[in-house]
Structures are given as structure tokens and as C-alpha cells.
Amino acid sequence: MSLAGLIVSGPVLDATEFGGHSGFMPASARPYDLMKDVMKYRKIDSHVHSDLYDGPPENNIAFMDRLGIEKMFISRPVTSGEGTPKDFRHYNDLTLKAMKKFPGRLTGQFTVNVPYQKESLEEIQRRVDQGMVGLKVYTQVKINDPLFYPIIEKMISLKMIIHMHSHCQLGLGGYRMKYDTGIRPNTSIPEDFADIAKRYPEAMFQYAHIGGGGDYEYACKMFTHLPNIYVDTSGSNNPEGMVDFAVKQLGEERVFFGSDNCYYQSVGKILASELTESQRKKVFFENYNKILEKSGNSIK
Questions:
Q1: What is one GO biological process annotated to this record (predicted)?
Q2: Is 233's pLDDT higher than 60?
């Protein structure tokens, strides 16, 4: 387990318990009240799933209670199969069911598959009318494919963010490595996000899970001068300094807290960062809430 995960999931122990030197944590020092620190921040989870890999929405609620997460924006994207209208309507129905079961705590992000243009546009409007907020899409089509243009224009009119699964292979000798067998060829990469952000500067894009194991530094550097691209910190990988790097590179208002269902690590990596109190509040809550405010869905 990473330090970021340990910092939330377990107690803070004196170094002498591991045979270390007592000077590491003076005996006179007060024990660190970890959960008090965890619970003092308001939190919006901008990237989380329900009815996908981690079970029913009750599991989401349990972690919300444990970690003081005020609201989760859940989705059930099409991760396998053809992604027909029948598929994405079914997954959106699951998300809506979870919303209704836990109103005020879970809010759904709708999903579509853009080759089905007419059905996707109709589905977006239908789900917005039902209270869903924001689009979550996967790897069926790259974010800068012309098929996405009508969808993006619809989201601009709604003043809602487009949250896209992403990846960035690690570099080697100055070159980008080719996709390996675990990465789908239509996965959107930083270059794709940069391209579409320039085409639609009035749109808002969320580059998913910089903690997902890819080259987050490369991505953040590419997005530095593209103010309509935001990143979320979710994922199970927690390189030291990742959150600090993102905030330094993008600015303190373009980084969102997210878990991608990796709850302990995702809270822990913010607490383990060198961010100021003001910056932590922004990442945990305020930044995403400002996005919600644009469409009239902010949390009071």
C-alpha cells in the first residue's frame, strides 16, 4: 500500500514500533488525529462509479460516511460490448436508480456512445431532465473525433463538463511509447484533449485519473495553457508529489478531487501533499463546485 493509502486507512504509529529512532516522533508529541484531519474538509468526488466493479451504491455510501465525502458524481460508462443505445440507456437507468435511492448524496453523470448521434443527443436531454449532471464517456471514440462535435456543442449549451477516460503512456528517450495490449486504440490521450480544447475553448473537459498510472507530468505540461481542461486526481497510483505537480502546472483551480473508487488513496494523496489549507479546500470541494455552479447545480 502507498503512503497516501496508509495515511487514511491505518493509524499513525511511533517509529520505535518499527525499531526506529525515537527522534523520528518525539514521545512528547501529540498523536496525530488523522480522521479529524480527514473529516474537516468538505469533499466532492468528481470521478466515481456505481454498479460497475465495486458493487452497488450502498458501497459508495459506506465510503462517503467513512471519509466525509459530501457528494459523489457517479457513472456507469460502457466499458465493454458494442455500446448500443440499449446499452447506454440501461447503464444510465442504473445510475438514476442509485440517485433516487440516495437523493442528495449521489448525482449521476450520463453516458452515451457518440456514433449513435441522434440517440445520444436525445439521451443527454432526457437524463438532464431527470437531474443528471455532466457527461462521462469511455474509449469508443476519441474525444477529438468529429463525431463528438455535436455532443460537445450540446454540453456547451448545458454548461456542463465532459468527463473522458484517458491515458498517457510513459515516455522513453523522448518518444511516446506505443499502445500496449491493455490500452484500447481509441483511448483519448493528452494530444487529443489539447486538440479538442483548442477547437472548443468554451467547452469544459475533465481529463480522468492522473493517478491511473500514466505519465501525468506529460499531460499536465501539455494542458498548462489550455484553461478549459481540468484534471482529477483519482486512481490507485500515488507518486510522491503528483498532486503538487498538477496544482503547480495547471493552477490551484483546475484540479479536482476524485477517487475512481480508490477511496483511501485518493483522500490520502491530498492530505500527503504540500498544498496549503486554501488549496486543499479548492481541490477537495470548491473547484468542482464552481463547475457545477455554471449549470445551476452547485452545492450550498
A1: secondary metabolic process
A2: yes
